[in-house]
């Protein structure tokens, strides 16, 4: 199956999900609005912190906004296009993969994009508003590439974390915690970490690659970090694919009868 | 019989936790990772670890965080779970059973919560002991701190149960769950003590119930005084009573509106 067909399918799912969301307009607005409020709470957190300490290893409140501008848009897009990213482990544990296995589509990708999380719309708009306020128009091409890398990394980590269910059965909570931890750690500048923690944030839980590194590149572009980010994006996508398909061999059908409406 | 059935529910729920203990331990390890990250964050701020910021040394600040994280994350996503039961109508099947729905939820979740609290605290404590060192505190204060932690966990449950009723009107459990958790994280003082806040915000936070879930029990843990314990515990009991009353009113209203369409 070609990449073009997959992209078209993702887009079709997005359109259908959007139409469904618009049918339940009030619910859609509540979800997105609550997430904007939720993100404002993080701004309150940093405002309290910077009010007391002024700077964190050279990062001030403006630097924190730069992190949010990239992180929230990537996470928001990943949630809107790959809304099932937090439910992979649950689907595996409950034997719900049967449905995806019976379709002539890529199982791994289809498992990700069957649903949209409109909480992500709140994150997306929040991040986008900040980006419009702080970045010039000339930054759009680089910003778009960096955001796209962030989306791929988020989707890859979701698959890796979700695939734990192939090996440990009930890994739903763990996989969701892992995914959300990435967002939480992304809120903190990478420069405040050192040694092992910095390595963790660039490998096991690559929050650095979805927030601090893109923010740093937008502030001052440098090739080594840019290539490292591109390399990391492909590496995580490859690891996700390998782990998922190795795990899939261990999958046991639940023989559960499901009606999908 | 009335009380024992809830005790049995708690016992069964605990057995379920043990059935999925790997998942609970993995969750605790991730919370441990958050604590690890915060150790790094505070080490940047405390250039000299022996200095105190607003009465907190580095050691006190990290042990404070270990306790607040252990309390606040102990219930998982209860608002979302209870909210989904209301939204999906699943609550109807529970209402026909011979128990009080809220007490059922409490007994079912308290054993899970205590188990999660313990595992998270152990993981956090081991990390803190290794990276920061032990906390100076009197062993005689432990029973008082345990009482305050139990009250904090109960208050946390009552607030989550109350907030989950909003799903009846808002139809969105996850966003409300996120929002509530952020309020406890920040306004409740989970991430840092109220002493770090500007004075006006600290005085507002100190008056709200959220700080009695995180800040006050953790402050007792790192800087204990019997007088403070009585003040904190009595205020926790006051908030528990107020929120239980509100829960009672809200659930009575919801039950009167629930429609069961057979099936």
Structure characterization notes:
The complex is a heterodimer of chains A (261) and B (263). With 261 residues, chain A is mainly alpha-helical. Chain A has helices at residues 3-23, 25-53, 61-81, 88-93, 97-101, 107-113, 119-134, 140-168, 172-186, 195-200, 207-210, 212-219, 223-248. Chain A has one domain. Chain A is globular, with a radius of gyration of 19 Å. The two termini of chain A are 26 Å apart. The model of chain A has no long low-confidence stretch (mean pLDDT 85). In chain B, 74% of the residues lie in helices and 0% in strands. Chain B has 12 helices and no strands. The radius of gyration of chain B is 19 Å and the shape is globular. The chains are: A mainly alpha (261), B mainly alpha (263). The A-B interface holds A 24, 26-27, 30-31, 34-35, 37-38, 41-42, 44-45, 48-49, 51-53, 56-57, 117, 119, 122, 168, 170-174, 177-178, 181, 184-185, 188, 192-194, 197, 200-201, 205 and B 20, 22-24, 26-27, 30-31, 33-34, 36-37, 40-41, 44-45, 76, 170-172, 174-176, 178-179, 182-183, 185-186, 191-192, 196-198, 201.
